[in-house]
Amino acid sequence: MFKIFESKTKEECMCDKYTHLMHKAYKLALYDKEESDRLNARAKKIMRELRRMEYSEIEY
Question: What is the DSSP letter of 53?
């Protein structure tokens, strides 16, 4: 019914962080290419970890 009391799994938290980093990197790309690349690298590291964990909710 309500997801207020359910905690997220580690994989879900990582997936949310990946999405947030990619969105932020996309917005920053217009102004600061270096920072955008740095955020992109962090997001890719999270994606590799999710793939290693074989998280089924990943969209390739």
Answer: T
Nearest CA among 40, 1, 48 for reference residue 19: 40
Burial 26-60 (b: 16+ CB within 10 A, else e): eebeeeeeeebeebbebbeebbeebeeeebeeeee
Query: In sequence order, what are the residues at sequence separation of 6 or more whose Cβ sits closer than 8 angstroms to the Cβ of residue 21?
Result: 39, 40, 42, 43, 46
Q: Please name which of 58, 30, 29, 33 lies closest in space to residue 46, comparing C-alpha atoms.
A: 58
- pTM score, whole prediction: 0.79
Output the tens digit of pLDDT for each of the chain's 60 residues: 566 778 888 888 999 999 999 999 999 999 999 999 999 999 999 999 988 887 766 665
